[in-house]
Model the fold of this input.
Amino acid sequence: MDLTDSAPPSSDSPIKQEDDYVTPITEEHDTTCWGCGLRLIISPYAPVFKCGWCGAITNHNARKYDNKYFWLRRLRDRCFVIVLLLFMLFIIGGGVWAIYPVTFSMGYFYGIFHMTITISLSIATLSTFVLAAFRSPGAPPRIPWGSYPNMGRGGLMDYTFCNVCSNPKSPNTHHCRSCGMCVLDMDHHCPFIGNCVGAGNHRSFILFLMSAVTSTFYVSIMSSYILCQIWPPLRHIPTVKLTWSTIFAFLTESALPFLISVESLPIRGFVLIYLFFASVSVEIGLAVLLWQQLSFIYEGKTYLSHLNSNGNDEAEEKDCQNIVRFFGCSNPATRYLLSFWNSKKSHKK
Done:
């Protein structure tokens, strides 16, 4: 049969022809993984993708932070550190000047005992503050990247790329614009210590909070006690039958002796009043922050990981062992107490 004589199929033929559309691969589909250097073919509508070999995540929409005001943020943090140091030195110096002449007048042993407590708390608070403020918050470890021969399969699993530091960033690492670096296990940036709280200084920060809360509690107790000792006596007010008029008269008559006694109060008394209110207010704020930090450590999280978890606590295990690991306590007595505590909790369940 001669194929040249065959007529082309008509449009009325029941056989339908299907059109094949071939889309060429353009440059927008071809990209390179920053982790292993392999060329990947992806959709142009996928700005965020994950490499199938090394596991690195690439985000083309990640914005690069502007470091234009970096020096201003560092200056702000250093000013906070200087102000807080001066405040602590004023509390220590003012307390020694206002309290200990009275305590030594009560007894030599009494004064030596409280002076020893003051020196111990002052050294502990200042040393932990300096460690938390000037120690590195913890830079992430350097790992090889960017080359396929040096990168094994899954070597950068869920890592992202920091556009500011130009280094890989693990899931538990965050970049701080105020410190200008990536911080491992970052909890938060504290302007009062002028530093980030991370894997390198988190323990020093918690110890600073503990010593500061203890010190302010001690200052509030001692200042109130000494203030009661040196306060001028009030005028005696006769006892009368309590009615609304007598109560009002009592308040009116007691306010005048109180104001008169305040006028005759020495300068040491006003310093003690300031120390009491300042220590109580600081103590309340630091105690709330310490409780929050210990709660996150108990849950095995940081403040940033708590925000990123969105209330999903399935992956974290709440246990006192997290606190022991955080402080590095590994003696047998501690392990025995924790095992007893955990067995007690499981028995209750």
Notes: Residues 1-18, 344-349 have pLDDT under 50 and may be disordered. The chain has eight helices and ten strands.
